[in-house]
Amino acid sequence: MPTLVSRVVIGLGAVAVLTGAAACQADEPRPPAGFRALFNGRDLTGWYGLNPHNLTGLTGDKKDAKLAEERQEFPKHWRIENGELVNDGHGPYATTEVELGDIELLIDYKTVPMADSGIYLRGLPQVQIWDWNQPYDLKNPTRKPHLGSGGLFNNTPGTSGRDPSVKADRPFGEWNQFRIRQVGDRTWVWLNGQLVVDDAPLENYSAPGQAIPEKGPIHLQTHGGEIRWRNIFVRDIGPAEGRQILAAADLEKKARLAQGLTLHASFDQGLEADFSRGDRQCYLQGSQLVAAVPNEEVQLVPAGGRFGGGLHFTKKGNTRPAYRDAGAIGYNDRRWSTSVSVWLKLNPDLDLEPGYCDPVQIVGDDLKKGFIFLEWSKDETPRFFRYAVRPLFHIWNPDNVQWADIPFAKRPMVQVEKAPFTRENWTHVVFSLDGVNDRSRPQVGRLHINGKLQGTIENWDFTFGWDPEKVLVVLGAAYVGYLDDLAVFDHALSDGEIRVLHGLTRGAAELR
Fold first, then answer.
1. Confidence of residue 142 (pLDDT cuts 50, 70, 90)
2. Could you tell me the residue range of the domain that residue 353 belongs to?
3. Other Cβ atoms within 10 Å of 109 Cβ, number
4. In degrees rounded to 5, what are phi and psi of residue 257?
5. Which residues lie closer than 8 Å to 132 by C-beta, 6 or more apart?
6. Residue 405, by phi and psi: left (phi above 0), alpha (psi -120 to 50) or beta?
7. Confidence (pLDDT) at 114
8. Is residue 70 located within the same domain as residue 195?
9. Residue 129: inside a domain, yes or no?
10. What is the C-alpha separation between 193 and 398, in angstroms, rounded?
């Protein structure tokens, strides 16, 4: 059965056939039905030269002079050959005279080794084009050409879509085809028929934190090596179709969340999980697992949670509710990915007692074989909030020193100095892991608060040694405050999935 998204956009197969047909007569572009050509295959009509970075800080006459200079430079570095738009690797970017908003863009390119380039959308960088044969350089950890082209390279490192999900580049000498769809700030990229960016927000590189412009030009970047372009076709997406596309995409994300949910504890009726792929029973962490029941340290609060009932950890104590893996967490020694979502309410500086405080942990049979936790620091004021992934002991602590004695920058963790926790409002925390025990691909940990990425843990060897039978999700280790709506998933959630999860009006219960 076709997905809802596939019913509101042009099928990839039809686009590929029509684009291929256009390639046969490149000097007379023939756009697919509903598209129009931005490049006529004969001359530079409709295009001018502009590198927007060269205008930074310029105003008035100086800006006007620079704009005029780049228009004059444009034909010196761009030419037409066999119906192709060719750049010599230098000069200003090829820029559309027309400004575009919500669109679907088809474009072919062919480049050379050691060059890189990109496609700016609404004047903002960029859908990246790499020489993917370049090796990964640990000295430049956020630069990852080996993963391939198509990612939104100027987005925040670690965000979904910043790097492509698959490498779809063709060998040098062959043409590559992009299909790019942008609705609002949300961007999809297909490279050679493979989806490499799935509904990722394009960030405003020029004005961080602000909304992207409603319209802007397309820039074809020049960056050190020849690149050729052809079959540049665009289709405008109207408001009604745009709303339908976004609604369909959100429905699909909600469906993926529902499919990936492995454990959910709402705390509406008790400590037992409402849903689990494994054991629903809640246990007390200890040498022997026994059923957990509320007590003076951990109380059920009817109607006091984020969604219905919740938990109140009243004081620092020894009661630590825990849920067994048994299929609910999915730990394995091949490739383990997961995400944990929870809502918290407290003022850390007023409510927590001295020492480390961990609202959520994932543990195995030995902390030296792996340890995952959220924590508040013990000494700083205000107290730092952290997400840490500690693999085998010798990997993260080869010098055998105390956690507190390792410099922050050398710990496998994300640290937030001023996290938005209060007694008045609930705060949503999601931490994820991707690729534990699989060193053949990037291994990443990510922390989101209230739907926004706070940071990533990358360039670490996430090799664990847990006994799968002993893995637990543990709540409330020295924690004092409220906790609600624990949910565990079988994959590392994307930014878009976390955005949808954060916005559910009834919490994870909507996914069951």
1. confident
2. 257-511
3. 21
4. -60, -45
5. 145, 146, 147, 148, 149, 167, 169
6. alpha
7. 85
8. yes
9. yes
10. 45
Q: What's the domain count of the chain?
A: 2
Same domain (yes/no): 227, 276: no
pLDDT band at 27 (very low <50, low <70, confident <90, very high): low
CATH number of residue 294's parent domain: 2.60.120.200
**CA-wise closest residue to 366 among 469, 450, 437:** 469
| Exposure string for 274-311, b = 16+ CB within 10 A, e = fewer | bbbbbbbbbbbbeeebeebebeebbebbeebbbbbbbb
CA distance 213 to 50: 18
The reply to whether 385 and 440 lie within a common domain is: yes
Reduced to 3 states, what is the DSSP secondary structure of residue 175?
coil
Mean pLDDT of 364-382: 94
pTM: 0.87
Instruction: Give me the chain's average pLDDT, please.
Output: 92
Query: Does 483 reside within a domain?
Result: yes
Rounded CA-CA distance 227/109 in Å is 7
Measured CA distances, 189 to 172, 234, 341, 434 (Å): 20, 14, 28, 22
Q: Are residues 420 and 374 in the same domain?
A: yes
Tokens of 213: 């412009």
CB 399 within 8 A of CB 407: no
**Cβ neighbour number for residue 347 with a 10 Å cutoff:** 14
* Cβ count near 438 (within 10 Å): 17
Q: For residue 400, is it within any domain?
A: yes
Contact predicate 366/439, CB 8 Å: no
* Mean pLDDT computed over 488-512: 97
Instruction: Give the whole-angstrom CA distance, residue 130 versus residue 128.
Output: 6
pLDDT band at 458 (very low <50, low <70, confident <90, very high): very high
Helix 495-502 crosses helix 239-260 at what angle (to 10 degrees)? 90
- Nearest CA to 114 out of 96, 129, 124 is that of 129
Task: Work out the pLDDT band at 11, boundaries 50, 70, 90.
Answer: very low
Give me the pLDDT at residue 286, please. Answer: 81
Q: 264-278: per-residue pLDDT in tens?
A: 999 999 999 999 999
Structural contact between residues 37 and 233, judged by C-beta atoms closer than 8 angstroms:
yes
Q: What are phi and psi of 440, to 5 degrees?
A: -80, -15
Beta bridge partners of 234: 36, 105
